[in-house]
Specification:
Elements: E1 8-10, H1 18-26, E2 32-36, E3 40-45, H2 48-55, E4 60-61, H3 64-67, H4 69-72, H5 96-106, H6 112-117, H7 119-133, E5 141-143, H8 144-149, H9 151-160, H10 168-177, H11 185-208, H12 214-220, H13 231-244, H14 247-262, H15 264-271, H16 277-287, E6 293-299, E7 303-306, E8 309-311, E9 316-320, H17 321-324, H18 360-377, E10 382-383, E11 405-407
Parallel strand pairs: 1-2, 3-9
Antiparallel strand pairs: 2-3, 4-6, 5-11, 6-9, 7-8, 10-11
Helix pairs in contact: 7-9, 7-18, 10-11, 11-13, 14-16, 14-18
């Protein structure tokens, strides 16, 4: 594939400065040619209006098996570092009737009533994690990423899907591995194999001994026409739901805490009742969306975006969801500032259109419980290192932190 525009950017596989990279791409057109690992060429879309426009455009598709010639012909295969994002057969990689069928089997579990019914469980998990933080010695540095932000959503999602305790470490390892964008071909191929083995084992476990959990429900559920998930669809759906149900929420909680700690005036607004935890969550989603570049869509037809940009049939497209909230065209008033009083906190952190994130209500609720419990129990919490020393995850897909070291002082009594 030869680029047809004068600018091509090699995406930083280590995600060193995601926002600066996205801002740079935004200035070069409605879509920009980018080079992915393995010298795979794609288009990056960073402007908020173009992202929304294309995500409702019927000329874009999700199924690589039908719409990506390089995948169909084997020029890109399971050894590609991002192969786990296109090799699965779930609602995430489906279109039309298949997407509707697969989504309809899982959507009821994430409706408002079902999500609110989870709040006591989320609150109990959070309380246990916060109580454990009290064991830290005064002045000791505690990593909230490993002690709160990570275990809360991963514990919840594993509980919901009935993952046995002994299977959780491996499932968490392979889910985390799918987010890396710098893997070697050998590592990428091994990861796909391990992903399917781990989720296949979970499915086999639940098929042999069903429980009151979503894996058992997926195995038993039939759609309106009496159709069940195929084994490949079942395993792929588990990969999607367990992965998406944990990693993005981890990043949301980490960033929301870090932003509040580095903006004490904004935290003071919440404590004074002039802003809410929901305000903090939406502003964190706008400013530090948990996902930056999400792979992959494919042009089912030629798409002319103007400004000399023509996306040809079969070419891959990445959407920079993490760029939209900082787009000056969407937020002309200080788009890079964390401001809970901002009237318009609109963002695309959970996507847009047919593939809008099913779990957005769960993520918001988990973040609310985590923030309120943490700051109520530790009112004098502070970062243990300068904010500029917080290291990002090494990925251009997710926008997360490797660690979040803080010092805690429990509230009196």
């Amino acid at each position: 594939m030869e680029p047809r525009c004068p600018f091509t950017h090699v995406l930083d596989t280590h995600g060193t400065d995601l926002h600066a990279e996205a801002a740079h791409l935004r200035t070069h057109g409605p879509a920009v040619r980018v080079e992915l690992p393995g010298r795979v060429m794609a288009w990056s879309v960073t402007r908020a209006d173009v992202v929304k426009q294309l995500l409702t455009d019927s000329r874009l598709a999700k199924n690589a098996r039908h719409h990506w010639p390089d995948w169909i012909d084997g020029r890109v295969g399971p050894e590609w570092p991002l192969a786990s994002w296109v090799a699965v057969e779930s609602m995430f990689t489906s279109d039309g009737a298949d997407h509707h069928r697969l989504r309809s089997l899982t959507a009821p579990a994430f409706g408002p009533r079902r999500v609110e019914a989870l709040r006591p469980l989320v609150r109990a998990i959070t309380a246990d994690l916060v109580d454990a933080l009290r064991e830290a010695a005064p002045g000791e540095s505690v990593d909230l990423h490993t002690r709160l932000s990570y275990p809360l959503p991963t514990t919840l999602i594993c509980d919901l899907f009935g993952v046995p305790e002994e299977q959780r470490p491996e499932i968490q390892r392979v889910v985390d591995g799918a987010l890396a964008t710098y893997s070697t071909p050998e590592e990428a191929k091994a990861l796909i194999d391990d992903l399917f083995v781990a989720m296949g084992l979970l499915a086999a476990t639940k098929r042999a001994a069903p429980g009151d959990d979503m894996t058992s429900e997926l195995i038993a559920t039939r759609d309106a026409n009496g159709s069940r998930l195929s084994e490949q669809e079942l395993v792929s759906t588990l990969i999607l739901m367990i992965g998406a149900g944990s990693e993005t929420t981890v990043n949301l909680i980490d960033h929301a805490i870090a932003l509040l700690l580095t903006h004490p005036g904004q935290l003071a607004l919440i404590r004074a009742g002039e802003a809410t935890w929901q305000d903090a969550i939406e502003e964190a989603l706008r400013l530090e969306a948990p996902v930056m570049h999400l792979p992959m869509y494919f042009a089912a037809e030629d798409i002319d975006l103007g400004e000399g940009v023509l996306i040809r049939t079969g070419e891959p497209v990445l959407f920079a969801f993490g760029s939209a909230g900082r787009d000056p065209a969407l937020h002309p008033d200080r788009p890079g500032d964390f401001d809970l009083a901002r009237a318009d906190k609109s963002h695309l952190a959970f996507g847009h259109g047919h593939h809008f994130c099913l779990g957005h209500l769960v993520a918001r609720m988990e973040a609310e419980e985590a923030l309120s419990a943490l700051f109520d129990n530790f009112p004098d919490i502070e970062l243990a290192i300068p904010a500029e020393e917080l290291l990002p995850q090494e990925s251009f897909i997710v926008n997360g932190l490797r660690t979040l070291p803080v010092r805690l002082t429990p509230a009196a009594g």
